[in-house]
Structure formats: C-alpha cells, structure tokens
Write a structure and sequence with these properties.
globular; 18% strand; Arc Repressor Mutant, subunit A; 36% helix; Elongation Factor Tu (Ef-tu), domain 3; 4 domains
C-alpha cells in the first residue's frame, strides 16, 4: 500500500511543514503524517509571524530555502519593522497574517511539491530495530516504512487543556491529543517532561469600540520577509492597543481560587516571557495596567485575537473581566482562552543536527524540544529535514554555528544547556547579533543552501551576488566622493552636527550619528543619482556596513577566536571520568552530552573555564 519513504514527518505544524519541504527540496521522498489535513500550518496562537529576534529567524529560514517567509508575504495584513529607533542589529520584521490564508497557502505549496505525499491519521508509535528507526505505526495498526523520521508533534503529545476547573484531553481547541509516542520513547530510555502554554480568548470584532483604543498602523512603506520576488503589501489593516485596569484585575482575582495555575492542577512550566494575564497580575502586583494588542485574524473575518490576555481562568471570569477593558464594554466572546499541558523531551538528548542520541535517524523538532513560537519551531523543522536527508545518505550533518545564524544560537542553546521552561529566542541570546542582522541573512546563509543542493537556490545566489556587488559599488562611491563645506554645512547645522571647514570624503560625514544616507541623498543630487540605480535594500546594506564597520570587525575577531575552539575536536570515546582534574559536574555532563568540540563543551552549563583548560591540556593544546 505504501512505498518506503526516505523521510516521514509526523505533524504538520510550522515545524513539520518546514521539515517536509527541506527534505523534499533536497530530493528525498517525504510523507507528511497528520491527524487532520484541514489544520496544516494552523496558527494555533496569535495570527502573526516575526517580531524581536523571531523576524530574523524567518528571514534565515527563507535564505535557506524554507517557505515561512514566502507564505507570510503572500498572506500578511500588516507589516512593521520593530526597533527602528535602535541599531540595525535590533531591527526585527513582524507581520500580522490572515490566519486562514496562511494555512491555505502553506497547504497549496506542500501539495504542489512532487516529492511530498500525505497520510491523515494519528501516529501512535515508531518502528525501531537495533537502535535504528525504520518507520511509524498508525492508530489503525498500519506500519509505514521509512529511512528517517522527524517528530514535530507540537502540543499534541498527551495534551491536556485547562479552563478553570475543567480539564480535557486535546492538542488544540477542538482537536484530540496524540497518545502512544511518549510512552514508547520513555521505554526506549528518553527523558520526558511536561510544559505548559496558553492562548487568549477570541472575540467578535463587531462588538468592539475601536474609538476607545489606540490605533497601531503598519509601516508607511511595508517591507517583506522573503528575499524572493514575493508581492509587496498594497493595503493594510490596523491593529489596536488598549489596557487592563485595577477594575479588570479585581475581576480576574475573583477567579483565582478556581485557577488551575494557582491550585496545582497545572504542573507543566509555562513561558516566562509570555505569561498569562493572571500570572502577570500575581507577579507584577504593583502594576496598575497591562497592555493588550487587539489583532484582526483576517481580511474577511470578524474574529479578533486579544494578544496579552492569555488565560486559563473560568470562562465566566474571563468574560466579566474583558468587558471592563476600554473598548470591550459590549464585547461578545467566540471562545475563552485556555492553557494546555503537553509532553516534551529534554533537547540535551539530541545531537546538534537534531538527531536523537538514542535512536539513529530519528529527529525531533519544534515544541517537542521545549521551545515556544512558530518561528523557533519552523527553523528546527528546516534543520531536522535537511539533516534527515543527509543522514540516510551518510553525508556530514548540517550544523550552523552561533556566529552564522540565530538558528545556530537556538539549537546550540537547546542541545548544550537544555531548558526548564518554553524556550523563546531573543536578540540578547546571540553574542554576535551585529553579524546576524535581518538584512543580511541571505548573504550569510544562501551560499550554504546552494552548496547543500537545495532546490531553487540558483536564482537566489544570483541575487546574493548582485546585492554584494551593489553594496561594494555604493561603498566605493561614498568613500571616494568628496564634498565641500558649501554643499553640506546648511544641512549639518540643521541636523545639529559640526559644520565642515574643508573638503572631506563623504564617508567621514556618513559616520556621524546625526547623518544617514536618506538625508544625504536629499541634499547631494550626484549621490542620489548613483544610489537610485540600486534597490533600497542594497543601499541599506552598504550604509550599515560603513556606519558599523568597527563593530562588525570587532565581532568577526571574536568569532575567529571562538572558531579556534570549535576546530578542536573531542573524541567520541574520550573517557572523561579518567580526567580527575575536571570537576565532578563537568565529568558527569561531558560524559552524558558528548560534545563534538571544545567550543561546544565550553557552552555546557556546569562546565567551567578551568574545565576547558584541563581539556585543552589533555588534547595537547
């Protein structure tokens, strides 16, 4: 009935979708197994992609040939570049998406791929023989053979939904939980745990008074995520901002005695940086209000997402409290918010390729690894899909360094440090964030994708070369073009910058903090005429390269130093217990985690600099 597949992907959320296309675009024959074909790429929580650090990840996925950026560009309602007031390392693209169109576009792109098949049924187990995965077992008892399996189960593994004192099995509202896989993996020796996430109520947009809220429009010149020729956003829908109040908080507190968070029914750890509204009130009792983002779910729906009001309180408490929020006085609710507990597996049980240490050719990606967020899930799926393809062909694994991508930072953090709470990416987690900007993800990663042989990267490489050449040409022009005092002094005085006393190169003027390329182009026709030959994205890259040249050079020097440690390989059979100069904790963790390099060992929690010195001496360094 079934052929033998190269890769079976279990789950069709953001992680599963990216895993499927990654393996398929390398030439693998892929089966996507999902419990419901109608919920492929469902945006289970907020209808948005990107944000701080997350936007960088979406651009990295796109640069590596993934589809998240393309789908977002085709289905967005609004685009905003966050943190524009800060340096370019912090700029983060974010898009409000049409929930239904997003899932529909993903399904169309998957179905159009000749290397991808589908099977709708719960997967209840794996076929494992002699430590090697051989396929999956379905709820009806079917066995489907494959050479590799990628598990992307999201919140479905023994999922338990909480609303007040009610609790029931489910992986998402209206969908049943997945059973069987956790139990088998534990029998195989894997360490499982429980985590918790939540979602806010959905409400009827027709019953909201937007006049009582702050308008949050999109950018006047909206950008996009994909480096490919996706459409530009022509019109946008606004979001809105409102706030809770002491009256709202008092109403919510009335239900605290029935809260599963506070009475011990929820045992899983929730996300620290995206707490429920009741958790905010409890932890930040001194604050009189909390911000709520009122986000449309699509072009053609009245459904609205209340971002910031995630809750597992009883539905009547949620309803009464929301009706005291400005603009929500006559609100009608579609469904209440809820919390969901689910199984995850400590990611320290994985190789940096996301292959499990215990079962060969078995890969984990997404929330099963303890992460939260569409973007974090999608990038893991992409890496797992690529490595599943490479593993069954005995090729070297695809591993991104921390200096190459936010994706590299995320996976390195997970496999070396593990996580005790849902892991979310922030710019602060990346020590080389000036190098890992959202504007240069294609320059960093598309050559790697092209070298791997990912389908469709030939045209992307042509654009990368054009972008690099354009940036060099613009930089050369600025460095060599001389300006006289009479050309710029009027502009400089208005900008609050010291006037020129003699002719100087334009480059020295651009380095001033009060000056940027856009303003210089307005007062220097020759510069404007030259820059107008190129796309704005190319001009922006050249400007960043020049203005932040010193910082970029310093970070590259730091990377070179760290890469020396990354080049010192550790033997797989190294007996750490025999190295008595190592601390007991270091011996235990190094024996269990088996780092590939000294650099990786240095990032394991509990391994100190003195332990690294011992290893270097032992290695003859």
């Amino acid at each position: 009935m079934f052929p033998t597949y190269d890769v079976i992907v279990v789950g069709a959320g953001h992680s599963g979708c990216e895993a499927a296309v990654a393996a398929a675009n390398l030439g693998s024959r892929v089966l996507v197994a999902t419990m419901n074909m109608n919920t492929i790429a469902q945006m289970s929580c907020n209808p948005a992609m990107g944000g701080v650090a997350k936007g960088q990840i979406v651009r990295e996925i796109d640069a590596l040939g993934g589809y998240s950026g393309i789908v977002t560009d085709h289905t967005m309602l609004q685009f905003r570049m966050l943190n524009r007031s800060k340096g370019p390392a912090m700029w983060s693209p974010r898009a409000q998406s049409d929930r239904l169109l997003f899932a529909h576009k993903w399904r169309l792109m998957l179905e159009a791929h000749p290397n991808i098949d589908f099977w709708q049924e719960m997967i209840t187990g794996l076929v494992v023989k002699n430590g090697l995965v051989r396929g999956v077992r379905t709820g009806m008892g079917l066995e489907i053979e494959s050479r590799a399996v990628v598990l992307t189960n999201g919140t479905f593994l023994n999922g338990l939904i909480h609303i007040g004192e009610k609790q029931f099995g489910g992986g998402r509202a209206g969908e049943r939980a997945a059973t069987g896989i956790t139990e088998q993996l534990v029998e195989l020796g894997f360490e499982a745990g429980r985590m918790k996430t939540g979602t806010p109520p959905r409400v009827d947009g027709r019953t909201l008074d937007y006049e009582r809220m702050e308008v949050q429009p999109g950018d006047e010149e909206p950008g996009k995520f994909s480096y490919t020729d996706t459409p530009r956003l022509e019109r946008q829908l606004p979001c809105h901002i409102t706030y809770t109040s002491p009256r709202v908080h008092d109403e919510l507190k009335e239900g605290f005695d029935r809260s599963p968070m506070f009475n011990g029914r929820i045992r899983g750890l929730g996300p620290r940086y995206c707490p429920s509204i009741e958790d905010k009130i409890d932890r930040f009792a001194e604050r009189e209000r909390h911000q709520l983002f009122v986000e449309p779910e699509g072009w053609d729906t009245i459904e609205v997402y209340v971002n910031g009001f995630s809750s597992s309180l009883p539905e009547d408490v949620q309803y009464k409290a929301l009706r005291k929020v400005p603009g929500f006085e006559h609100m009608k609710m579609f469904r209440p918010g809820y919390a969901i507990e689910y199984d995850f597996f400590q990611p320290t049980q994985l190789q940096p390729s996301l292959e499990t240490r215990l079962v060969k050719n078995l890969f984990f990606a997404g929330q099963i690894n303890g992460t939260t967020g569409y973007e974090e899930a999608g990038c893991q799926g992409l890496v797992a899909g690529i490595n599943a393809h490479l593993a069954i062909r005995d090729r070297e694994p695809f591993i991104l360094k921390r200096s190459e991508a936010y994706i590299g930072v995320l996976i390195d953090d997970l496999v070396n440090k593990g996580t005790k709470e849902p892991y979310r990416m922030f710019t602060s987690r990346a020590e080389y964030r000036i190098l890992l900007r959202q504007d240069n993800a294609d320059l960093r990663l598309t050559p790697i994708a092209h070298e791997l042989g990912i389908r469709g990267t030939e045209a992307r490489m042509e654009r990368v070369r054009a972008k690099e050449e354009a940036a060099r040409a613009i930089e050369d022009f600025v460095r060599n073009y001389s300006v006289a005092p009479d050309q710029l002094n009027g502009f400089l005085e208005k900008a609050g910058s010291t006037p020129l006393r003699q002719k100087v190169k334009l480059h020295s003027v651009l380095l001033r903090p009060q000056v940027d390329m856009a303003s210089l182009r307005r007062v220097l026709p020759e510069l404007n005429a030259f820059a107008s030959q190129y796309e704005q994205e190319f001009v922006d890259l050249a400007e960043i390269n020049m203005k932040y040249e010193g910082y970029i050079r310093r970070e590259r020097e730091m990377v070179d130093k760290m890469n020396r440690l990354e080049s010192v390989l550790l033997r797989d059979d190294l007996d750490y217990e025999s190295l008595k100069s190592l601390s007991k904790e270091a011996r235990d963790k190094l024996t269990r985690l088996r780092p590939r390099t000294i650099g990786q060992a240095s990032r394991i929690s509990g391994v100190s600099p003195s332990d690294i010195s011992v290893l270097l001496v032992h290695m003859g360094r």
